[in-house]
Amino acid sequence: MLPTSTLVLLVVIAFLAGVGITAVGPGGIFVTVALFALTDVGSSTVAGTALTTFVATGLLGSYTYYRSGELRTRAGKRLATLVTAPSALGAIVGALANAVLSEAAFGSLLTGFTALVGASIVYRERRALGSRWSVDPALPSGAAVFAVLGFAIGVLCGLLGVGGPVITVPVLVLLGISMLDALAAAQVQSVFLSAFAAATYVMQGAVSLPLVVLVGVPELLGVIVGWRVAHRVEASRLKVALGATLVASGVLLAAT
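-> structure tokens emitted (256 positions)
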């Protein structure tokens, strides 16, 4: 049984992670980091548990963005489909690969990935770097680009137990997709990516249901708050704060 202080900290982190998921994309990774750093479960259970909660956050996030209109347009639906279908296959590959990772290797990869994502977010926002390329998902060449990226994102997310939005949103924005449309597509992707990866972990017995409930409920509350924030607050400010926190989390992980 975890100490009360640890349980409270996990709940707070999960709520903030939910806010990040629908407000700026990177957010769910905090749950993965917290489970790895604050509990004594194995790396496979960390990944499997986190991904199971991301199925629920993805469903709720998809509903909120459908409600606000981003997933009602033909373009929005097409984009969501392009990044979702291949990522589900990639997630299975990543989840299977996790089984051969040692605890040390998993920790090193998670630490490096966390710090890298945070540093890239801060750098791009500080430099005011917008979309570097413009890729049209309506064109065959554009669709192929998004499909390949979706598969690669699925592999990485399934391997490390991080939600799709943490990578998908920054990548889509870089390719010319608006912030809200990127967030909306990433929510749909998260449902299927996380579900296929989580199912693989379930078959390996690597999911803790008590932890799923503990962090999943506050995550869902955060998702609703994050959706409202995304439509009311300038995204650049949120991304800088989130990026700095990710870098700090990477440093703390390296020290544990």
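The mean pLDDT is 87.
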